[in-house]
Sequence to fold (141 residues):
Amino acid sequence: MDTKKILIAVCVGFVILTFVSASWAGETRIPLEAAKPHPNASGTAYLSGDTISIHAKGLRPGSVYTVWFVNMKPRKHETGAGSAPYVFRTDSKGNGAYAATLSESPFGEWAMIMVVLHPNGNPKDMKSMKGALKAPIPTTG
Fold:
């Protein structure tokens, strides 16, 4: 076998191994439901290994949103999903996407995923934020 064929075989093997590994790791698909301030919004969160991605539509066009993991009991507290500032901006049609690497799995640690609007465009302003999308997180992935 010449070097070119060996290189092609190694590359094909790597692609197959990557695909099989991703399939074994699994991906949890979580449909997101609209909160009252965003009645036409919808989206899906995907949790896989140490990553989260969110695809949303029907949000306010050209606006700033952040993504959070939230617990309501024993008291309400939250942490950003990924690295600060946990932000994405919607396009002119209200579509948005978010992707981040997580430092730990949210399964069994957090009860909900929440996407919130920052009406003034400042993701650090937590007082004026409004719910947009939310969903419970399964206890296992």
Notes: The first helix runs from residue 3 to 25. The longest strand covers residues 64-71. The CA atoms of residues 79 and 106 lie 10 Å apart.
